[in-house]
Recover the amino acids of this structure.
């Protein structure tokens, strides 16, 4: 069952969903808007082949960028960067989440979450965003922008997640 605004606010009050910092005005009918953080990871230009494998470490072929709140990150057409949400999400073992981009940005070719939208139960982390510019022009992003939304679902029974990104704080 996907949670509506009423259930989201109840879960926040109970502590099953913890969003830091939390702004009640960001809660919509069945989701919460999340803002863009200021830490990014830009991939190095490399013509070498890269072997995709289970223990991949994107830090080996990317650079971290930290912006001040008044700075912008430019993303060229066709470019992928990793970013983070400003908000840290902590979920109980009875709730999972799903990240989605916002339609106003999708309509200009900005993909916010490429493929890994599931937010596991028991996470306590910022969400890493796979941001792709599919538009024909360069886009500029500023920290603090309401860039995506998270919806929540009640699990049929408690679940435990112990993956490597459970407490991730940087892209």
């Amino acid at each position: 069952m996907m949670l509506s605004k009423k259930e989201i606010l109840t879960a926040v009050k109970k502590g099953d969903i913890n969003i830091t910092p939390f702004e009640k005005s960001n809660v919509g009918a069945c989701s919460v808007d999340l803002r863009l953080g200021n830490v990014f990871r830009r991939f190095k230009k490399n013509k070498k082949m890269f072997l995709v494998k289970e223990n991949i470490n994107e830090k080996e072929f990317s650079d971290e960028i930290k912006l001040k709140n008044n700075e912008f990150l430019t993303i060229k057409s066709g470019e992928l960067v990793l970013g983070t949400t400003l908000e840290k999400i902590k979920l109980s073992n009875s709730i999972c989440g799903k990240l989605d981009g916002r339609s106003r940005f999708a309509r200009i070719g900005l993909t916010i979450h490429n493929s890994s939208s599931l937010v596991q139960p028991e996470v306590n982390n910022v969400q890493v965003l796979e941001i792709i510019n599919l538009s024909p022009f360069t886009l500029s992003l500023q920290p603090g922008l309401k860039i995506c939304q998270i919806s929540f679902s009640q699990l049929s029974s408690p679940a435990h997640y112990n993956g490597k990104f459970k407490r991730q704080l940087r892209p």
